[in-house]
Design goal:
This protein is α/β, with parallel strands linked by helices. The chain has a single domain, classed as 2,3-Dihydroxybiphenyl 1,2-Dioxygenase, domain 1. The protein contains 2 helices and 8 strands, in the order βαββββαβββ. The two termini are about 25 Å apart. About 20% of the residues lie in helices and about 30% in strands.
Length: about 140
């Protein structure tokens, strides 16, 4: 069995105030990116892709009902896809799930080389996800 590359992301958890909304927006995105549902429980779900897993959880320990990405902490997540055509296809599909382009006048270089920046008011309060089609960037 191949061991994950040292320093590769192991997992991340996103606490959300509304699990159903999170599943509709982020769950759709993760499954479109080929993350497989790994576990489901009353207040959460996890997905796995290679050595990395993602958790969405409606935690009772939340201290606020939304996150502000302009505060210190996580600003956004960025995902690789195989090529620029996949970026374009994902942009079209994402708009059907309530996402909208940020900086449409700067496409396809809004977030760097061949990156489309999508925005949605996510249950966590975060507002964007970058989708990159250039391997290695």
């Amino acid at each position: 069995m191949n061991r994950p590359t040292r320093g590769a992301l192991h997992h991340f958890e996103i606490w959300v105030p509304d699990l159903d909304r999170a599943l509709a927006s982020l769950g759709w995105l993760l499954e479109t990116l080929r993350y497989a549902v790994c576990q489901s429980w009353e207040t959460g779900r996890s997905w796995l892709l290679a050595p990395t897993y993602v958790v969405l959880e409606q935690s009772p320990a939340l201290t606020a009902d939304r996150n502000d990405r302009r505060r210190p902490g996580l600003n956004h997540l960025a995902f690789h896809v195989e090529d620029d055509d996949a970026v374009e296809k994902l942009v079209i599909e994402a708009t059907q799930h309530g996402w909208s382009l940020m900086f449409p006048d700067l496409r396809p270089y809004a977030g760097g080389c061949h990156v489309s920046v999508m925005e949605k008011a996510l249950p966590s309060g975060s507002r964007k996800a970058n989708i990159g089609g250039t391997p290695g960037h």
